[in-house]
Design brief:
14 helices, globular, 22% strand, 466 residues, six-stranded parallel β-sheet, binds iron/sulfur cluster, pyruvate-formate lyase- activating enzyme, 21 strands, Rossmann fold, OB fold (Dihydrolipoamide Acetyltransferase, E2P), five-stranded mixed beta barrel, alpha/beta
Length: 466
């Protein structure tokens, strides 16, 4: 793998973008409202918060829906085929809205566009798209929009560089909880995954910049931070000094933010030091998302995951020893090329053995350009569908058993909103990452409430206030 140095976006480059923002603010025909449609993971959700922050600073208000916006951005994902198809379907549908609002500007950005040659291909096929840009030049939105507004033709910009941009405007979705991206990209090249091709090489933000952002969030009353990265466990690679994720967590823990979470982790990079820090911490929540993907060693090898089933289980045991009762979740792929029924049964037995609180289960989706997409022995759809159904049924059973440990337990819930089922109840996540419903009202939203779990109803924990 060729060594690539990250490109740090300078204050001067950000100043130039500020100048474009001001130019847009002075245009008589500028868009007045925006709507961002987000697909994919939390990294994308946070990128959308940054897009919204820039649009706010360009004098636009958030529209109630995409039909009533002057500027619509689709922040896309390409991890699975259906995410791509859904995004393109929705973009096409907006073409009708353009007939009612001829000034509507449509932009497509994110992982889907970052794929080699994709921006040109999409613009050729979907001629009504005004703007297309990738994941690494998000900070250039003001410049790209300005160019589009000043010329009556589509603007495309996708750069094959690995950028880090600090101090971008952000319009956060929640007041009580916030995302902080700590690293970008991925060097792992799991054979099925497109992420390293569209998010670039691993690069970490300076620890001091992350700590400063966290402090600012704490001072503004944020109660929970979620640290984001494709592989947070390898945070620090390429930075000077002995900078590790464990050390970052230790320093954030000392800061006193009530709740700290993170994702995503790679089992091969989950160090003993990190497990120790979790065991000793006051504010890191007792939860861990540890994608296993498969329970069979040969399939794990073909996936290029670089751990064995036993090594994975060893990490699970170490986590449970250091943090008793820890909430464990995972990602699993079924129907990877060549997966036999016997190998699939190894995944089933691993799910039983671990007893996850929840699992994101997927049918393998071939992604052009990845190693696995070129493998010959692709699994027929009906076989993969049958396997995923059996896996989901097993996980449901395991989940019920795993959740039984919470009944009678005292916990703290960060209330996210009113319950969908009752006007006198609210819900949020407990410390282990599981949803909990409790009696309450709108006034509780954004607050941490102490509860005792009383029962399990439809896979949700029900609690009373203490
Ligand atoms: S660790 Fe593997 S699955 Fe995760 S983003 Fe990197 S290449 Fe993709």
């Amino acid at each position: 793998m060729a060594e690539r140095k990250p490109v740090i976006i300078t204050p001067q480059q950000l100043e130039e973008q500020r100048a474009y923002m001001n130019e847009i603010l002075n245009l008589p025909q500028r868009p007045r409202s925006y709507y961002v449609v987000t697909y994919g993971c939390q990294m994308n959700a946070h990128d959308s918060e940054i897009l919204a922050g820039m649009l706010r600073d360009m004098g636009m208000d958030e529209a109630p829906d995409r039909e009533n916006a002057d500027f619509v951005i689709f922040n896309t994902c390409c991890v699975r085929d259906n995410a791509e198809r859904r995004a393109l379907g929705n973009v096409t549908w907006l073409k009708e809205v353009r007939k009612r609002n001829p000034n509507l500007i449509i932009a497509v950005c994110g992982c889907m566009i970052q794929q080699p040659g994709m921006a040109e291909k999409i613009l050729k096929q979907y001629k009504f798209i005004d703007l297309a840009f990738g994941t690494t030049n998000l900070y250039k939105l003001p410049e790209l929009l300005c160019r589009r507004l000043n010329a009556d033709r589509a603007v495309v910009e996708v750069e094959d560089v690995d950028t880090i941009a600090e101090d971008l405007p952000v319009k956060r979705l929640r007041r009580d909880a916030a995302y902080i991206t700590i690293m970008y990209g991925c060097d792992n090249f799991c054979s099925y995954c497109i992420v390293p091709y569209v998010r670039g090489r691993e690069r970490s933000r300076e620890m001091e910049a992350i700590l400063a952002e966290a402090q600012q969030l704490k001072d503004s009353g944020v109660k929970e931070i979620m640290l984001l990265g494709q592989n947070v466990n390898s945070y620090g690679k390429g930075l000077e000094g002995n900078v590790t994720f464990a050390e970052l967590l230790r320093r954030l823990d000392a800061m006193g933010i009530p709740r700290i979470r993170f994702m995503t982790s790679h089992p091969k990079d989950l160090s003993d030091e990190l497990i120790r820090v979790m065991g000793e911490s006051k504010h890191i929540l007792p939860q861990f998302h540890l994608p296993v993907q498969a329970g069979n060693d040969e399939i794990l090898h073909q996936m290029n995951r670089r751990y064995t089933r036993e090594q994975y289980l060893n990490r699970v045991r170490a986590l449970r020893e250091a943090v008793p009762g820890i909430g464990l979740t995972t990602d699993i792929i079924v129907g990877f090329p060549g997966e036999t029924e016997e190998q699939f049964q190894d995944t089933m037995s691993l799910v039983k053995e671990v007893g996850y609180d929840s699992a994101f289960t997927f049918i393998y989706s071939p992604r052009t350009g990845t190693k696995a997409a070129a493998m010959e022995n692709q699994i027929p759809e009906d076989v993969a569908t049958d396997r995923i159904q059996r896996l989901i049924a097993l996980q449901d059973e395991c989940q019920k058993k795993a959740m039984a440990r919470f009944v009678g337990m005292e916990d703290e819930v960060l209330v996210e909103g009113l319950s969908r089922r009752s006007k006198t109840a609210v819900s949020g996540k407990g410390r282990h990452g599981v949803s909990i419903t409790l009696p309450g009202s709108e006034a509780d939203i954004g607050e941490i409430v102490r509860v005792r779990v009383t029962e399990i109803k439809n896979n949700t924990l029900m609690a009373e206030r203490t």
